[in-house]
Amino acid sequence: MKVNEPKIKEKRWNISMEQEAARRWAEENLYRFRLGTKKKIFSIDTPPPYPSGRPWSVGAAAHYSQIDMIARTARMKGYETFFPIGIDRNGLPVELYTERTYNVDIHETPRDQFIELCKHALDDLEAEMIGTMKRMGLSGNFDSYYRTDSEEYRRLTQATFISLWKKGLIYEDTRPNNYCTDCGTTIADADITYAELPTTLVYVRFRLKETDGTAVIATTRPEFLCSCQAVLVHPDDARYQKLHGLHCLVPIYDREVPIIANSAAKMEFGTGVVMICSYGDTSDVRLFRELKLQEVVAIDAKGRLTSAAGEYSGLSIQEARRRITEDLENKGFIEKKENILHRTPICDRSRTPVEIVPMKEFYLRQLDFIPSVRKIAQRMKFHPEAHRQILYNWIDSVAIDWPISRRRVYGTEIPIWYCNACGKPNIPEPGPYYRPWKDEPPLSICQHCHVNGGFSGEERTFDTWFDSSISPLFVSGYMRSERLYRRTFPVSIRPQAKDIVRTWLYYTILRCYQLTKKQAFRHAWIMGYGVDEVGKRMSKSKGNVVDPIPLLEKYGADTFRFWNAAEASIGSDFRCSEDRIAGTAKFLTKLWNLSRFISTFPQPARARLTFTDRWILSELDGLRQRCLEGYDEFNFFIPASELREFVWNLFASHYVEMVKARAYNSDHTFLKADQQAAWFTLHECLRSILVLLAPICPHITDYLWTGIYSARSIHRETFPVPSRRRTDTLREITSALEEFNSAIWSFKKERGISLNQPLLRVYATRKLKRMANDLRTMHRIGDLRFGAPKYATKELVAKGETYFAP
Ligand SMILES: [Zn+2]
Ligand SMILES: [Zn+2]
């Protein structure tokens, strides 16, 4: 019989075909979101990536390719899918990038000009990012992509502030808080990470006032001596019982401070005697409050010592520390010095140590909302479930309200004008975008004293998380499009990275609840980190970031996508290495060759199946079930590894090899009906494989699908429903079959016989009896018998007979 030409002409999958597929999708506007649809809507709060510099890491690209798999999964489950794309362009990294790019200093550039530069600085990076997303095959709604620094976004941020202000949830207070002298702004606890930094622990002698003795205090911050207001010892510390109630003199400054017995003193740290200064750390803040000590401001907003430091006033912290240590040493106050590693809070943005400086800032009440946020965290579905704990841990550690004002330039302005007559804040109506530092006030009389004495605009901006935390409200049209909002909020899923659970996820739940009383999302999907070949997290500072663009150019989007789906289970960190990506390419080649082979056969509408066909279809059913379970969890590792295993190790190695002869039926050994059954089954398997793989590898599956099966894109299909037939018993013979085939293959291999060489007589297990015809032709067995033979194994082989099955 003449073999048909394959419907897939090209001998191999070429990545230029990916662009061809993408072009077709764009022409068809395949991923358009239809708000008017009757279908259920699935909405995604896509993380707007931050273009803070090149390259975008391979880990981030993997993250976005999996978010696209979420969108495609939803579509194939029959949802109308809303997949907005945004770019986050607010805040400090933008300012730093602008300073670097244009070689300007933010403090020496007029605010207006600097903001213009910021707007342009990111355009190239942003264009590259959007290009990469498209190249990866993201099925997002690109035609309406948003920027968090747009007027539209910022006026929503401001409107939500005004609304929270009116609800009484915002207040201003001067209190010591985390302050980054490098960024020049107050920051929230969530913006802090910790690092073990080398420092010197100096043991300083304090003279006692009442006796001739001294108390030795170990400190890493001698520059804080000027703000020392008390010395503590633990009440149970036997060494220092006699010090209780005495006073000591602060070296250099000669000020008298009380020695207080307090359990906050750690007996095991240094000498067990500690000095309390404003403010070495957060426990100092608490002790100043509890012991009613008088605050001395030692450090100013620029990170220099204040006049309280006397002769050290005006010095930087580092310089003051060096000089004061020297002076203490010269005056004989130092007992010894130790070099240690000290756990130091550092600013997550500038990676420099954080100080505690009293500043007047706006705070958003969050402590009152902790119980509600915890309840929402309990109700949400987490993928993976284990990552729910990250959020719980953070919720449990929140100790103060959220400082939301920042002394920065490139961010959303706080919309307040202060009355020049009474000084009180005037809040405008929500709606427009306000820039109080330059705009005319939108009111003429003060809301409080009703005097027209002129106004001064607020100059601070919001913490950028104050913007980012309303992303699900922004994308769903909150306060802008009632119709969109009604249909897309609460948002179905929040996909995001692990390290911003305590910021982006937490703040979003909080803010959406405060504004709408609703739970922002049903699902939270938390991906692990991309790590390098030795398991280290990629970061620009470590210099181990791998650029995804050359990899995409070399291997194509589908290989890249399949690699990251198959690399690790949802939530786990995944290794990024070119070798592993290259290894994945082989699977797509296998799929291509297999599809091309199957495409040579006609597709009967129905067939009378043989036992072998029913067996593989029962395995296919199991595959569908397992893949769909993985897709339900948005855990793409499951369908990716299941499909690879099925295609490679079961379908291609066993079934296709078994039915090849039947499908060709060149010498008419098989019934016509049996030949048709093979054709039918081959296509049935391939169709399912392609559909199940489509969310992970959208290009190659669509190319093959439209080449073999339909003019309509595979991305308009829905997932196959696993059949209700009970087929488990058929699946039970799989291992017997695998064992039998492998035994024959290795039998021939061990003896250097080619696979085509006939075997005289073979005994197989009875379980395989109903596959006899296929097995006989597959292995070219003259006489295939089932059950155990009469002789022992060795003698069988000697007689030209082979026995495998138990
Ligand atoms: Zn900083
Ligand atoms: Zn007034």
As a whole number of angstroms, the C-alpha radius of gyration is 35 Å
| Ends apart, CA distance between termini | 38 Å
Biggest sheet features: 7 strands, mixed
Q: What's the total helix number?
A: 25
Helix percentage? 25-40%
Average pLDDT, rounded to a whole number, is 92
Q: Kindly estimate the percentage of residues that lie in beta strands according to DSSP.
A: 15-25%
Runs in which pLDDT lies below 50 for 5 or more consecutive residues are: none
Provide the structure class: alpha/beta
How many beta-strand runs?
A: 28
Overall geometry: elongated
Bound molecules: zinc ion
Condensed summary:
This protein has 806 residues and is α/β, with parallel strands linked by helices. It has 25 helices and 28 strands.
Task: Write a structural description.
It is a single chain. The chain has about 800 residues and is an alpha/beta fold. It is built from 25 helices and 28 strands. The strands form 9 sheets. Strands 7, 8, 9, 10, 11, 12 and 13 form a 7-stranded mixed β-sheet that branches. A 4-stranded antiparallel β-sheet has the order 6-5-14-16. The chain is elongated. One zinc ion binds next to loops. The site of one zinc ion has 8 residues, from loops.
Features:
binds zinc ion, 806 residues, seven-stranded mixed β-sheet
Q: Secondary-structure blueprint of this entry?
A:
Elements: H1 16-28, E1 41-43, H2 58-76, E2 80-82, E3 84-87, H3 92-102, H4 111-121, H5 123-135, E4 141-147, H6 151-166, E5 170-180, E6 185-186, E7 192-208, E8 214-219, E9 228-233, E10 247-250, E11 255-261, E12 273-277, H7 282-290, H8 317-330, E13 334-347, E14 355-364, H9 370-379, E15 381-383, H10 388-397, E16 402-403, E17 405-406, E18 417-419, E19 425-426, E20 455-457, E21 461-462, H11 464-468, H12 471-475, H13 482-488, E22 491-497, H14 501-516, E23 521-527, E24 530-531, H15 548-555, H16 557-567, E25 574-575, H17 578-598, H18 611-632, H19 637-664, H20 672-693, H21 698-708, H22 728-731, H23 734-750, E26 759-764, H24 772-779, E27 781-786, H25 793-798, E28 801-803
Helix pairs in contact: 1-21, 3-4, 9-10, 9-14, 10-14, 15-16, 16-17, 16-19, 17-19, 18-19, 18-20, 19-20, 19-24, 20-21
The structure holds zinc ion (ZN) (2 copies).
